[in-house]
Amino acid sequence: MAEGQQGWTAFLLFICVSITVGSVVPIGYAFGVVNAPSAFIRSWIMESALARYSSRLGDSQMTVMMSAVVSIFLIGGMLGASFAPIFSDRLGRRGILTLSGLLTLVSCICQLFCRMANSIEMLLLGRLIGGLAAALIYATQPMYLVELAPAELSGSVGVFTSIGITGGIVLGQVFSFDFVLGTDKLWTYALAGSGIFVVVGLAPIFWFPESPRFLMSQGKKEKARVALMRLRRDEGRVTAEMAEYEATSGVVDQKVTTKEVLCNKKLKMPLIIVSSFHFVQQMSGINAIWFYSVNIFTQSGFTLTVALWLNFALGLENFLFALLGPVLMRRFNRRPMMILSCFFCAIFLTLLVVGLELMLSIHEFSYACIAFLSLYILAFNVGLASIPFFIGSEIFKPAPRPSAMAFGSFFNWLSNFLLGMIFPVLNSAIGPFVFLLCAGFCVYGLLLTYRYLPETRNRDPKEVAPLMENGFKSKIK
After folding, report:
1. How far apart are CA 96 and CA 133, in angstroms?
2. Helix or strand (DSSP H, E) at 376
3. pLDDT for 6-37, tens place per residue?
4. What is 1-208's CATH number, 1.10.1660.10, 1.20.1250.20, 3.40.50.300, 1.10.10.10?
5. What does the alpha-carbon distance between residue 211 and residue 92 come to, in Å, rounded to a whole number?
6. Those residues with Cβ within 8 angstroms of residue 353's Cβ, 6 or more apart along the chain or in another chain
7. pTM of the model
8. Which of 115, 126, 396, 406 could lock 84 by a disulfide, CB 3.0 to 4.6 Å apart?
9. Angle of helix 387-395 versus helix 160-175 axis, rounded to 10
């Protein structure tokens, strides 16, 4: 290890795992738990509407209701992203994560008791509140971990967001299996299962230190030093980092509103990068892949049951590849990782389109499609899965960082919502060629990274930010 650098400590690793389990895993869980018990949810909604409103819902109305159950979580995410900067200044990073945990628990309670109360509205409210909590987490959890870690570990801790989401999806799938909680009697327990991870993961949060950078921004220099000593346990290292904080912020960061961040021309390119990375991450089609993979497996000759298990295997593969993130981000630069990820995602999506077209006449190509799906997931986890979540912490100085991270979070939710709306329509109209649109967004991400993203690994934001101050005329180094 290079002189002056500090590797992982047991305390920092424990914080990363605990915060990820308690905050991010429930987000992935909410994405993964709904699909399997959807038939039971659909049946209950029909029964509830008939009992409470004497209204028999038709097929089109049920389709709208089920879409609402899924999409209202994303709507909550878009709404919650706008509140993150406000709460960040008032509550701090640790305070926001605590608030989000409480909101997630309220969400779980609503979903757990919606059937007992015979209330469709309670189910929708629970999903909405869960989305609000998730937006606060997206904007805060990566920033909190990056600000706790030494600079050389910023990328390694940043990928815990991706690990939590992929792990949560797998856990949601497991809990929703019919031999666990995905039954007609227990599906509400499956929906509320994420509360377990909130309680376990966030139980020690008040023992964890607040972000030293946040404390410095509030003028609490001594508390920042105490927090750093708990994290570093090295007086020389703490003194050096405190001096760096003071040189960067003048002890107290000037408060910057979201409007000021959006109107600042020097921040235009960093905002474009953060927002675009989040947009490309979702529009690259990762969630559409989960929708389409079962169909690919069934067309390959597998039964629906086996296809669902293979889909679960893909989710498990996604999680296992995400676990490589801390190692990759520690050893390799951000720019080449993002470029390679976007490039190969575009390649494998294009090959998937070819395979999906050819397998209609040549059955063997269906197995090639399975291979392309696996390779796409590997390429996605090289960069697109994790870098968008923490890149804002590496290119923005502390003062505008909360607003910028929240802005990126909003685009993540927006693109997720848009993809969910337009993918089924385009898929019906043009078939598998819809994945070429996803490949096009990957190409955009590649070009943006190549032209405008400076290398951020092992560099302080004060070194990186000036390289993007000239907007589209900026020259990277």
Report:
1. 9
2. helix 365-382
3. 668 899 999 999 999 999 999 999 988 887 78
4. 1.20.1250.20
5. 8
6. 432, 433, 435, 436, 439
7. 0.86
8. 406
9. 150
